Amino acid sequence: MEQILNDIAQEYSKFEFVKALVLSGSRTSDQNDNLSDYDIYIYSDKEISTTFRKELAKKYSDNFEIDNRYFETGDEWVLRDNKTYFDFMFRNTDWIENSIKNIYEEYHASNGYSTCFLHNVSKSKIIYEKDKWFTNLKNKIKKEYPKELKSNIIKRNIMLLCDKKSASYLEQIHNAIKRDDIIAINHRLAAFFASYFDIIFAINEIYHPGEKRLIKYAKQYCKILPLNFEENIKNLFNKNKNEKIEILNKITENLKEIIPIEYRKKED
Hints:
The protein has helices at residues 2-12, 50-60, 93-105, 116-122, 133-140, 147-163, 169-179, 182-203, 214-221, 229-236, 241-258; strands at residues 18-24, 38-44, 61-68, 74-79, 85-92, 125-129. The chain has 268 residues and is α+β, with helices and mostly antiparallel strands. Helix 6 packs antiparallel against helix 8 (182-203). The longest helix has 22 residues, at 182-203. The protein starts with a helix and ends in a 10-residue tail after the last helix.
Protein backbone atom coordinates (compact mmCIF):
# COMPACT_ATOMS: atom_id res chain seq x y z
CA MET A 1 0.00 0.00 0.00
CA GLU A 2 2.86 2.35 0.79
CA GLN A 3 4.31 1.75 -2.66
CA ILE A 4 0.98 2.57 -4.30
CA LEU A 5 0.73 5.81 -2.30
CA ASN A 6 4.27 6.77 -3.26
CA ASP A 7 3.58 6.02 -6.94
CA ILE A 8 0.43 8.14 -6.87
CA ALA A 9 2.32 10.95 -5.17
CA GLN A 10 4.98 10.76 -7.85
CA GLU A 11 2.30 11.28 -10.51
CA TYR A 12 0.82 14.30 -8.75
CA SER A 13 4.24 15.78 -8.06
CA LYS A 14 4.62 16.38 -11.80
CA PHE A 15 2.25 19.35 -11.43
CA GLU A 16 4.11 22.46 -10.33
CA PHE A 17 1.03 23.78 -8.52
CA VAL A 18 0.55 20.66 -6.33
CA LYS A 19 2.00 21.53 -2.94
CA ALA A 20 1.40 18.31 -1.02
CA LEU A 21 -0.16 14.87 -0.95
CA VAL A 22 -0.88 13.50 2.51
CA LEU A 23 -2.57 10.53 4.15
CA SER A 24 -5.02 11.44 6.90
CA GLY A 25 -8.23 10.26 8.57
CA SER A 26 -8.45 7.19 10.77
CA ARG A 27 -5.36 5.62 9.15
CA THR A 28 -3.15 8.20 10.84
CA SER A 29 -5.12 8.71 14.08
CA ASP A 30 -4.80 5.28 15.74
CA GLN A 31 -8.52 4.79 15.11
CA ASN A 32 -8.51 2.57 12.04
CA ASP A 33 -10.09 -0.85 11.72
CA ASN A 34 -10.74 -3.29 8.87
CA LEU A 35 -13.54 -1.02 7.59
CA SER A 36 -11.34 2.07 7.32
CA ASP A 37 -10.56 3.50 3.92
CA TYR A 38 -7.52 5.54 2.94
CA ASP A 39 -8.19 9.28 3.05
CA ILE A 40 -5.76 11.02 0.73
CA TYR A 41 -5.63 14.82 0.48
CA ILE A 42 -4.09 16.67 -2.45
CA TYR A 43 -3.32 20.34 -1.78
CA SER A 44 -2.81 22.55 -4.80
CA ASP A 45 -3.06 26.14 -6.04
CA LYS A 46 -5.20 25.14 -9.04
CA GLU A 47 -7.75 22.48 -9.94
CA ILE A 48 -6.31 19.29 -11.36
CA SER A 49 -7.63 17.97 -14.65
CA THR A 50 -10.34 15.30 -14.33
CA THR A 51 -8.88 13.63 -17.42
CA PHE A 52 -5.59 13.11 -15.60
CA ARG A 53 -7.39 11.88 -12.48
CA LYS A 54 -9.50 9.39 -14.46
CA GLU A 55 -6.48 7.97 -16.30
CA LEU A 56 -4.64 7.59 -13.00
CA ALA A 57 -7.61 5.80 -11.45
CA LYS A 58 -7.70 3.31 -14.34
CA LYS A 59 -4.20 2.12 -13.44
CA TYR A 60 -5.39 0.83 -10.09
CA SER A 61 -9.16 0.45 -10.22
CA ASP A 62 -12.07 -0.75 -12.33
CA ASN A 63 -14.59 0.78 -9.96
CA PHE A 64 -14.14 4.51 -9.41
CA GLU A 65 -15.96 7.83 -9.32
CA ILE A 66 -14.25 11.01 -10.42
CA ASP A 67 -15.03 14.56 -9.33
CA ASN A 68 -17.90 14.04 -6.94
CA ARG A 69 -18.73 17.26 -5.12
CA TYR A 70 -21.14 16.14 -2.42
CA PHE A 71 -18.89 17.46 0.35
CA GLU A 72 -15.33 18.37 -0.63
CA THR A 73 -14.24 17.86 -4.23
CA GLY A 74 -13.16 14.25 -4.46
CA ASP A 75 -12.45 11.01 -6.29
CA GLU A 76 -13.17 7.52 -4.97
CA TRP A 77 -11.49 4.30 -6.01
CA VAL A 78 -11.88 0.65 -5.10
CA LEU A 79 -8.46 -0.89 -5.67
CA ARG A 80 -8.47 -3.66 -8.25
CA ASP A 81 -6.23 -6.10 -6.36
CA ASN A 82 -7.52 -6.00 -2.78
CA LYS A 83 -10.81 -4.02 -2.81
CA THR A 84 -9.38 -1.34 -0.51
CA TYR A 85 -11.12 2.03 -0.74
CA PHE A 86 -9.15 5.15 -1.60
CA ASP A 87 -10.92 8.43 -0.96
CA PHE A 88 -9.17 11.42 -2.56
CA MET A 89 -10.02 14.97 -1.49
CA PHE A 90 -8.72 18.02 -3.31
CA ARG A 91 -8.11 21.18 -1.31
CA ASN A 92 -7.01 24.61 -2.37
CA THR A 93 -3.92 25.80 -0.50
CA ASP A 94 -5.31 29.27 0.21
CA TRP A 95 -8.53 27.77 1.54
CA ILE A 96 -6.84 25.51 4.10
CA GLU A 97 -4.41 28.25 5.17
CA ASN A 98 -7.32 30.64 5.74
CA SER A 99 -9.30 27.94 7.56
CA ILE A 100 -6.45 27.36 9.98
CA LYS A 101 -5.97 31.08 10.48
CA ASN A 102 -9.69 31.48 11.16
CA ILE A 103 -9.66 28.79 13.86
CA TYR A 104 -6.19 28.76 15.37
CA GLU A 105 -5.22 32.43 15.10
CA GLU A 106 -8.58 34.21 15.17
CA TYR A 107 -10.26 31.75 17.58
CA HIS A 108 -13.54 31.24 15.74
CA ALA A 109 -15.66 28.41 17.15
CA SER A 110 -18.32 26.45 15.26
CA ASN A 111 -21.54 24.66 16.18
CA GLY A 112 -19.65 21.47 16.97
CA TYR A 113 -16.52 20.13 15.24
CA SER A 114 -14.67 23.41 15.79
CA THR A 115 -11.14 22.04 15.55
CA CYS A 116 -11.59 19.16 13.08
CA PHE A 117 -9.47 20.82 10.39
CA LEU A 118 -6.68 21.34 12.92
CA HIS A 119 -6.83 17.67 13.88
CA ASN A 120 -6.90 16.60 10.25
CA VAL A 121 -3.80 18.60 9.36
CA SER A 122 -1.90 17.80 12.56
CA LYS A 123 -2.38 14.04 12.14
CA SER A 124 -1.66 13.89 8.41
CA LYS A 125 1.28 11.83 7.18
CA ILE A 126 3.18 13.56 4.40
CA ILE A 127 3.70 11.42 1.30
CA TYR A 128 4.90 14.29 -0.87
CA GLU A 129 5.33 18.03 -0.37
CA LYS A 130 6.92 20.92 -2.21
CA ASP A 131 9.18 23.42 -0.41
CA LYS A 132 8.09 22.08 3.01
CA TRP A 133 4.71 23.73 2.51
CA PHE A 134 2.72 21.17 4.50
CA THR A 135 5.39 20.83 7.19
CA ASN A 136 5.16 24.58 7.76
CA LEU A 137 1.38 24.34 7.88
CA LYS A 138 1.56 21.64 10.56
CA ASN A 139 4.10 23.59 12.58
CA LYS A 140 1.69 26.53 12.86
CA ILE A 141 -0.68 24.47 15.01
CA LYS A 142 1.83 22.57 17.13
CA LYS A 143 2.02 25.27 19.76
CA GLU A 144 -0.08 25.53 22.90
CA TYR A 145 -3.85 25.17 22.49
CA PRO A 146 -5.13 28.78 22.31
CA LYS A 147 -6.97 29.80 25.48
CA GLU A 148 -9.21 32.18 23.51
CA LEU A 149 -10.24 29.32 21.21
CA LYS A 150 -10.97 27.09 24.18
CA SER A 151 -13.15 29.78 25.72
CA ASN A 152 -15.05 30.48 22.51
CA ILE A 153 -15.75 26.80 21.82
CA ILE A 154 -17.06 26.14 25.32
CA LYS A 155 -19.18 29.28 25.58
CA ARG A 156 -20.70 28.96 22.12
CA ASN A 157 -21.53 25.29 22.37
CA ILE A 158 -22.82 25.19 25.94
CA MET A 159 -25.16 28.02 24.95
CA LEU A 160 -26.48 26.01 22.00
CA LEU A 161 -26.61 22.80 23.99
CA CYS A 162 -28.60 23.99 27.00
CA ASP A 163 -28.13 27.64 28.02
CA LYS A 164 -30.16 29.47 25.38
CA LYS A 165 -33.27 31.11 26.78
CA SER A 166 -35.34 29.20 24.24
CA ALA A 167 -34.88 26.46 21.65
CA SER A 168 -31.64 25.01 23.00
CA TYR A 169 -30.82 21.55 21.71
CA LEU A 170 -31.83 20.13 25.09
CA GLU A 171 -35.24 21.82 25.00
CA GLN A 172 -35.83 20.78 21.40
CA ILE A 173 -35.03 17.15 22.21
CA HIS A 174 -37.33 17.22 25.25
CA ASN A 175 -40.17 18.44 23.05
CA ALA A 176 -39.42 15.91 20.31
CA ILE A 177 -39.43 13.06 22.84
CA LYS A 178 -42.76 14.22 24.26
CA ARG A 179 -44.18 14.30 20.73
CA ASP A 180 -42.64 10.91 19.95
CA ASP A 181 -41.10 12.52 16.86
CA ILE A 182 -38.31 10.05 16.21
CA ILE A 183 -36.86 11.92 13.21
CA ALA A 184 -36.61 15.18 15.15
CA ILE A 185 -35.11 13.32 18.13
CA ASN A 186 -32.38 11.88 15.92
CA HIS A 187 -31.75 15.22 14.19
CA ARG A 188 -31.36 17.21 17.41
CA LEU A 189 -29.40 14.50 19.24
CA ALA A 190 -26.79 14.66 16.46
CA ALA A 191 -26.45 18.41 17.01
CA PHE A 192 -26.47 17.96 20.79
CA PHE A 193 -23.58 15.50 20.72
CA ALA A 194 -21.66 17.57 18.16
CA SER A 195 -21.58 20.40 20.69
CA TYR A 196 -21.15 18.03 23.65
CA PHE A 197 -17.95 16.52 22.28
CA ASP A 198 -16.72 19.89 21.03
CA ILE A 199 -16.86 21.10 24.64
CA ILE A 200 -15.15 17.99 26.02
CA PHE A 201 -12.25 18.18 23.58
CA ALA A 202 -11.85 21.92 24.21
CA ILE A 203 -11.78 21.37 27.98
CA ASN A 204 -9.02 18.82 27.46
CA GLU A 205 -7.26 21.09 24.94
CA ILE A 206 -7.10 18.50 22.20
CA TYR A 207 -8.34 18.78 18.64
CA HIS A 208 -11.67 17.26 17.62
CA PRO A 209 -11.09 14.05 15.58
CA GLY A 210 -14.35 14.09 13.60
CA GLU A 211 -17.51 12.01 13.63
CA LYS A 212 -16.38 8.44 14.23
CA ARG A 213 -15.55 6.43 17.38
CA LEU A 214 -15.84 9.49 19.62
CA ILE A 215 -16.50 7.61 22.85
CA LYS A 216 -13.41 5.47 22.33
CA TYR A 217 -11.28 8.47 21.36
CA ALA A 218 -12.40 10.56 24.31
CA LYS A 219 -11.71 7.73 26.77
CA GLN A 220 -8.27 7.23 25.28
CA TYR A 221 -7.11 10.84 25.08
CA CYS A 222 -9.17 12.97 27.48
CA LYS A 223 -8.03 13.25 31.09
CA ILE A 224 -11.24 15.06 32.07
CA LEU A 225 -14.58 13.40 31.29
CA PRO A 226 -18.10 13.82 32.69
CA LEU A 227 -19.25 11.43 35.40
CA ASN A 228 -20.66 8.16 33.97
CA PHE A 229 -19.61 9.38 30.53
CA GLU A 230 -19.96 6.18 28.48
CA GLU A 231 -22.68 4.61 30.59
CA ASN A 232 -25.05 7.56 30.25
CA ILE A 233 -24.59 7.85 26.49
CA LYS A 234 -25.30 4.17 25.95
CA ASN A 235 -28.31 4.26 28.26
CA LEU A 236 -29.73 7.24 26.40
CA PHE A 237 -30.11 5.15 23.25
CA ASN A 238 -31.48 2.08 25.02
CA LYS A 239 -34.15 3.46 27.35
CA ASN A 240 -37.78 4.42 26.80
CA LYS A 241 -38.77 8.01 26.08
CA ASN A 242 -39.50 9.04 29.67
CA GLU A 243 -36.13 7.75 30.86
CA LYS A 244 -34.40 9.45 27.92
CA ILE A 245 -35.30 12.89 29.24
CA GLU A 246 -33.91 12.05 32.69
CA ILE A 247 -30.68 10.65 31.24
CA LEU A 248 -30.26 13.58 28.89
CA ASN A 249 -30.60 15.99 31.78
CA LYS A 250 -27.98 14.04 33.71
CA ILE A 251 -25.59 14.06 30.73
CA THR A 252 -25.96 17.84 30.56
CA GLU A 253 -25.49 18.32 34.32
CA ASN A 254 -22.39 16.13 34.37
CA LEU A 255 -20.90 18.00 31.43
CA LYS A 256 -21.42 21.37 33.12
CA GLU A 257 -19.67 20.04 36.23
CA ILE A 258 -16.38 19.65 34.34
CA ILE A 259 -16.48 23.07 32.66
CA PRO A 260 -13.91 25.34 34.32
CA ILE A 261 -15.63 27.96 36.42
CA GLU A 262 -14.38 30.88 34.30
CA TYR A 263 -16.33 29.51 31.31
CA ARG A 264 -19.63 29.00 33.12
CA LYS A 265 -22.62 31.30 33.18
CA LYS A 266 -22.63 33.50 36.26
CA GLU A 267 -25.87 31.98 37.57
CA ASP A 268 -24.27 28.54 37.53
